[in-house]
């Protein structure tokens, strides 16, 4: 039997369909990966540029510290030049503010020039000042201080500030040590400040390495124009003992490290140049540890009192490649999701076309077979005249069959054209249909489940419930991913207030009563103080833990909420009698998309993100979440949250608003203190006062913007805090005066950080001190009624 001439095309449609799918997946994934990689590279370049800016600013700060030490030494020189004789108490009075301002300088000393004949006179004079054990000393290589040998001249430490902690240095002859003596002589001959290379310091301390800076002091009447005149007119040296570690730490105290290391390279008296490294606080040779070629390094050369120093900042590759944003991953996941959806849709369209072509081929083959049978019958009529009538009848039957088949074929062709038109219309609307919100799907399923669209069978109800659960899980997954993205990006803002845990748990258990079934749910909470938390976020955490407990507990099991106070915290334990968690699965419990444990039959699997979000939310509150489990006995999740106090609520709310205001120029944290004493005095009974106080706080909160914080502080203060400028503070006060009931008996005070205080307590004091006088800072307009 002959096949239709186009029947060989049918097998080709199957591989063509998958070739299109592969091409779409390849193009979609390539585009998503490319955009994600571009975003990652942009973030890396931004981090490198930020590091270079920090490095240059740090180098500038370091230069300023070096200049500050030099300026301090010069000011001491000017002081000596303007005085006939500097006494010990004058030296102490002049150097004390310098030492307080420059913490990198460990001590300042005065070492006069003393001849061999004048040694005994100097020792006697210093002993007469109260230093009974004073004598000129020298330092042996073994680190032992002994009486100095006889020499033609000495430069002993006579004045020393501070004296405490540097007692070993008093009487030490700087010139007895070769390195120090060489630097002193260079300073004397040049008339300028000179510093030693890295040397071992004489005084006690955890870091014996540092440098000593010498400033020559000449006699007031002696000329210093020539080298000989400077040598003859030398009166002594002012010495600054600089501990390199403290010097570097002061210069870097305002720098955010975040993977940045710093090195200070300088000459060393012990041999090759040395390098001080921070924040490791270690010394080492110049070559140091091998650096990666991927390190980003910024170097600056400077000269400190004649010594060449090299300041170097290094950003390690791991800090440069550290992920700070989930945007690239989000873009990649979105691209993959869209690629899969579009590919599935195109495959469905192509599959339908394949089925249509196969139907056409089948009908065409049947028609060809019928035609062949008709031809055979016609030839039989010619050969057998006797059977003419029978053949005519057969011909009529065949003719009617052909006509019926022709009608069927025509109907099939009409159906094909109709389906082609529907396909075109579907393609035109697919973009809109893919963006249909999940909420619309959820509402439609709810209507069908409730019977609002007509009665459904039991099987249909089960199917609709399955779909409804899938929508809920998809919504939960999206919400969890959004929450997790906000937390990791640092954009999650908590609206924390005083929360009564017992009341919150009772409300939560009541809302879940319909799905608890035969399980026993018990709350054990006696005399538990309130916590400082975001009510909605804590409900989210406890709802997740209760939902998990219900999933993994049989209908005859028990779930217990046990709430106890413990050392400034409230401990909330959620216990169940489920199958427990195997020890080897415990490490995966708080990992993304990980699912552990055995749950009841028919209970849908979770998303694997709920516990991750719970852990992050609890830690954002300053608490922590723990878990213990025993196989076949049950599992206990423990949440620890800080106990509420007025001081904690005030300081934490101030800190969060301060972070929110940091990104807006001209904005700070505004605080409005509302004194309610006059309003509450009208209430005789304490319960009525408390009810009035709570209602007032509710009214104040009702008339504020989202994100503003309202706190009630004992005994009669309502505090409002917001991230605003001065005009915004005035606007809030005016709004409360105009809208809050009983405002005529309230007193308002306002303050704005940082002008009126940089801490929450100071800002509150400033506001309460200036009731009815406008902002505490005089540079703002008043907020009188």
Structure description:
This protein has 785 residues and is α+β, with helices and mostly antiparallel strands. The chain folds into four domains: 252 residues, 2-Layer Sandwich (Beta-Lactamase); 110 residues; 148 residues, Heat Shock Protein 90 (2-Layer Sandwich); 124 residues, Alpha-Beta Plaits (2-Layer Sandwich). Helices cover 49% and strands 20% of the residues. It is built from 20 helices and 26 strands. Strands 1, 6, 7, 8, 9 and 10 form a six-stranded antiparallel beta sheet that branches. Strands 13-12-11-15-14 form a five-stranded antiparallel beta sheet. It has a five-stranded mixed beta sheet with strand order 17-19-20-22-21, covered by helices on one side. Helix 10 runs antiparallel to helix 11 and helix 11 packs parallel to helix 15. The longest helix is centred in the N-terminal third of the chain and has 72 residues. The radius of gyration is 43 Å and the shape is elongated.
List the main descriptive attributes of the protein structure presented here.
785 residues; alpha+beta; Heat Shock Protein 90; six-stranded antiparallel sheet; 49% helix; disordered C terminus; Beta-Lactamase
CATH class of the largest domain, anyone?
Answer: Alpha Beta
Q: Characterize the largest beta sheet: strand count, sense, and whether it forms a barrel.
A: 6 strands, antiparallel
Tell me the number of structural domains: 4
Based on the structure, what is the oligomeric state of the protein chains? single chain
Q: What share of residues is helical?
A: 40-55%
Q: Which percent range describes the beta-strand content? A: 15-25%
Give the CA-based shape: elongated
Mean pLDDT comes to: 77
What separation lies between the terminal Cα atoms? 103 Å
The number of helices is 20
């Amino acid at each position: 039997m002959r096949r239709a001439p186009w029947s060989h095309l049918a097998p080709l449609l199957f591989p063509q369909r998958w070739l299109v799918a592969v091409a779409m997946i390849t193009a979609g994934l390539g585009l998503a990966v490319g955009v994600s990689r571009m975003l990652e590279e942009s973030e890396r370049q931004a981090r490198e540029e930020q590091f270079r800016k920090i490095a240059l600013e740090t180098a500038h700060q370091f230069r300023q510290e070096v200049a500050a030490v030099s300026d301090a030494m010069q000011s001491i020189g000017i002081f000596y030049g303007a005085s006939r004789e500097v006494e010990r108490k004058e030296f102490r009075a002049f150097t004390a503010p310098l030492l307080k301002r420059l913490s990198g300088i460990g001590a300042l000393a005065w070492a006069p020039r003393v001849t061999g004949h004048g040694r005994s006179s100097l020792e006697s004079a210093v002993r007469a000042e109260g230093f009974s054990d004073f004598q000129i000393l020298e330092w042996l290589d073994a680190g032992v201080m002994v009486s100095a040998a006889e020499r033609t001249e000495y430069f002993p430490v006579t004045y020393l500030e501070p004296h405490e902690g540097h007692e070993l240095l008093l009487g030490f002859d700087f010139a007895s040590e070769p390195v120090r003596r060489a630097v002193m002589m260079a300073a004397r001959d040049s008339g300028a400040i000179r510093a030693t290379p890295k040397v071992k310091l004489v005084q006690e301390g955890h870091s014996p390495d540092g440098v000593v800076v010498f400033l020559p002091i000449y006699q007031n009447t002696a000329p210093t124009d020539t080298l000989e005149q400077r040598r003859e007119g030398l009166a002594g040296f002012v010495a600054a003992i600089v501990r390199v570690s403290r010097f570097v730490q002061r210069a870097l105290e305002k720098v955010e490290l975040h993977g940045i290391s710093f090195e200070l390279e300088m000459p060393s008296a012990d041999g090759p140049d040395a390098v001080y490294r921070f924040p490791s606080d270690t010394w080492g040779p110049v070559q140091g540890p091998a650096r990666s070629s991927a390190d980003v390094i910024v170097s600056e050369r400077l000269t400190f009192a004649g010594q060449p120093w090299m300041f170097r900042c290094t950003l390690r590759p791991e800090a440069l490649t550290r992920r700070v944003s989930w945007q690239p991953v989000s873009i990649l996941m979105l691209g993959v999701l869209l690629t899969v959806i579009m590919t599935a849709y195109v495959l469905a369209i192509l599959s339908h076309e394949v089925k249509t072509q196969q139907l056409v081929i089948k009908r065409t083959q049947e028609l060809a077979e019928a035609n062949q049978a008709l031809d055979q019958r016609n030839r039989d009529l010619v050969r057998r005249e006797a059977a003419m009538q029978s053949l005519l009848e057969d011909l009529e039957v065949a003719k009617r069959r052909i006509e019926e088949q022709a009608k069927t074929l025509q109907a099939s062709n009409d159906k094909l054209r109709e389906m082609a038109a529907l396909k075109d219309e579907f393609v035109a609307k697919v973009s809109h249909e893919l963006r249909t919100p999940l909420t619309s799907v959820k509402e439609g399923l709810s209507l069908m489940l409730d019977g609002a669209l007509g009665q459904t069978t039991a099987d249909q109800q089960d199917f609709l419930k399955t779909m409804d659960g899938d929508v809920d899980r998809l919504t939960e997954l999206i919400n969890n991913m959004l929450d997790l993205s906000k937390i990791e990006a640092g954009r999650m803002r908590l609206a924390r207030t005083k929360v009564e845990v017992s009341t919150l748990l009772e409300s939560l258990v009541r809302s879940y009563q319909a799905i608890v079934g035969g399980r026993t749910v018990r709350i054990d909470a006696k005399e538990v103080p309130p916590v400082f938390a975001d009510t909605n976020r804590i409900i989210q955490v406890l709802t997740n833990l209760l939902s998990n407990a219900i999933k993994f507990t049989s209908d005859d099991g028990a779930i217990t909420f046990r709430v106890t106070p413990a050392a400034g915290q409230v401990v909330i334990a959620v216990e169940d009698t489920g199958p427990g968690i195997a020890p080897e699965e415990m490490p995966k419990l708080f990992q993304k998309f990980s699912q552990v444990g055995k749950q009841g039959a028919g209970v849908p699997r979770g998303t694997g993100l709920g516990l991750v979000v719970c852990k992050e939310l609890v830690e954002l509150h300053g608490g922590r979440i723990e878990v213990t489990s025993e196989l076949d006995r049950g599992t206990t999740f423990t949440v620890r949250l800080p106990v509420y106090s007025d001081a904690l609520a005030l300081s934490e709310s101030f800190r969060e608003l301060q972070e929110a205001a940091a990104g807006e120029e001209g904005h700070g944290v505004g605080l409005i203190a509302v004194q309610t004493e006059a309003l509450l005095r009208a209430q005789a009974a304490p319960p009525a006062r408390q009810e009035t106080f709570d209602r007032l706080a509710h009214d104040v909160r009702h008339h504020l913007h989202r994100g503003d914080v309202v706190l009630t502080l004992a005994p009669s203060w309502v505090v409002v805090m917001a991230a605003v400028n001065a005009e915004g503070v005035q606007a809030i006060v005016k709004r409360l005066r105009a809208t809050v009931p009983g405002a005529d008996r309230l007193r308002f005070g306002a303050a704005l950080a940082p002008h009126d205080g940089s801490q929450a307590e100071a800002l509150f004091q400033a506001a309460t001190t200036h009731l009815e006088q406008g902002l505490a800072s005089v540079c703002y307009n008043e907020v009188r009624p």
